Amino acid sequence: MTINNKYSRNQIDKLGNGLIYLIEKMGFLPKTSLLKLVYILDEYSVKKRGFPMFNLQYEIWKYGPVCQDLYIEFNDGASLLKDYIKSEVIDNATHVSPINSFNDDEFSDSDLAIFDEIVTTFSGKNTNYLVDFTHQKNSLWYTTAKKNGVLEALLNEEINSTDFKIDFADLVSYDENKLAFYNDHLEFLNFTASLNQK
């Protein structure tokens, strides 16, 4: 079953519970930190296994790769994720907190191991650190922004966002097997999405 013709129920459950897991393990997180951690989870999962954790689409924005739908969820109040999180403004910053306990039904042991690696690596790191991490030279954000001629404008804060998309295939292009696995994964997602829309 798809929700709003974009996300399956399973995808929403996994994302919602993933956010809960991060907040439970890392404490109260500002919106921008959580947006970066979700992206980092997807990127790390592609590097390690050849497929993303959440299958979200990320655009090149000033503060790094951002899933626009998730950004809207955090800013406008959760609708797709209303059974999992709530957002509120505290000291002029949007913070996201869970409204339920973590449920691991959508997660494999491999998924949880990746979550734990990310939690261990980034616990205690502030938003600026996470933004800098996603902005590193040769990162997907950096190379995509440069390739599309918007790197300087983003770094100089002349623009806040673009609609240029991150292509995770670039992470595994050096490895034929992982690249084939990644492309098969995308093909499977597109196939199941088309079945769900019928």
Mean pLDDT: 89
Please tell me what the overall shape is. globular
Task: Extract low-pLDDT stretches.
Answer: none
Sheet with most strands: strand arrangement: 3-7-6
Question: What's a concise summary of this model?
Answer:
With 198 residues, the protein is α+β, with helices and mostly antiparallel strands. The protein has helices at 9-26, 31-49, 68-76, 109-122, 127-134, 140-147, 151-155, 169-172, 176-196, and strands at 2-3, 7-8, 29-30, 59-61, 64-66, 85-90, 93-98, 161-165. A hairpin with a 3-residue loop joins strand 1 (2-3) and strand 2 (7-8).
What labels describe this entry?
54% helix; globular; 198 residues; alpha+beta; three-stranded antiparallel beta sheet; 8 strands
Secondary structure elements and pairings:
Elements: E1 2-3, E2 7-8, H1 9-26, E3 29-30, H2 31-49, E4 59-61, E5 64-66, H3 68-76, E6 85-90, E7 93-98, H4 109-122, H5 127-134, H6 140-147, H7 151-155, E8 161-165, H8 169-172, H9 176-196
Antiparallel strand pairs: 1-2, 3-7, 4-5, 4-8, 6-7
Would you kindly provide a written description of the structure presented here, covering whatever features stand out?
The protein is of the alpha+beta class. The chain has one domain. Helix content is 54%, strand content 15%. The strands form three sheets. It has a three-stranded antiparallel β-sheet with strand order 3-7-6. A three-stranded antiparallel β-sheet has the order 5-4-8. Strand 1 (2-3) and strand 2 form a beta hairpin. Helix 2 (31-49) packs across helix 4 and helix 2 packs parallel to helix 5 (127-134). The chain starts with a strand and ends with a helix.
